[in-house]
Amino acid sequence: MSERPGDAYLEYVRARLPVFQRLAYMLCQDRDRADDLVQDSLERLYLKWDKADDARNTDAYARQMLVRVFLSERRTPWARRVVLVDRFPDAAGAAGPGTAATLAVRAALAQLPPRQRAVLVLRFFSDLPVDEVAETLGCSPGTVKSQTSKGLAALRRALPDFETTAPAGLGTRS
């Protein structure tokens, strides 16, 4: 029996959806916006699935689409919408160890410019090397390094009481 045209796409999305949802949430810090971001980028991925499926790294191709949708969304009038409430509370019982620290880091991360935030999320949350972040964002490795440095400095200023030592391996990327 032959495979239907969309089967490979559906299989890919089912396997990678949680990864893309986490990445989108880390970029925009809002579950609803993250869902919209994932939906928009997966729609674009579907329209270009033949090209993506032929790419040497489908994950990199899809991740690049998601990050670029996030960055371009920030430039549109839709991103300038009025917020009627500060935040809806997260689900009850979601608190756990490190929650205060996690919330503080997320709040500080949300204050960074979108491109700087994208660099830090891709470098340290997605654990990508400089060259792959540069390719994803369409910029030079030097730009990624400078944005990483500026973003980390801004986080250090925003979170002065946090431990300043990096986890093992965090400062060893080039």
UniProtKB/TrEMBL annotation:
Domain RNA polymerase sigma factor 70 region 4 type: 103-155
GO molecular function: DNA binding; sigma factor activity
Entry's family note: Belongs to the sigma-70 factor family. ECF subfamily.
Gene Ontology biological process: DNA-templated transcription initiation
UniProt cross-references to InterPro entries, sorted A to Z: RNA_pol_sigma-70-like, RNA_pol_sigma-70_dom, RNA_pol_sigma-E_actinobac, RNA_pol_sigma70_r2, RNA_pol_sigma70_r4_t2, RNA_pol_sigma_r2, RNA_pol_sigma_r3/r4-like, WH-like_DNA-bd_sf
Superkingdom: Bacteria
Pfam families xrefs: Sigma70_r2, Sigma70_r4_2
Protein name: SigE family RNA polymerase sigma factor
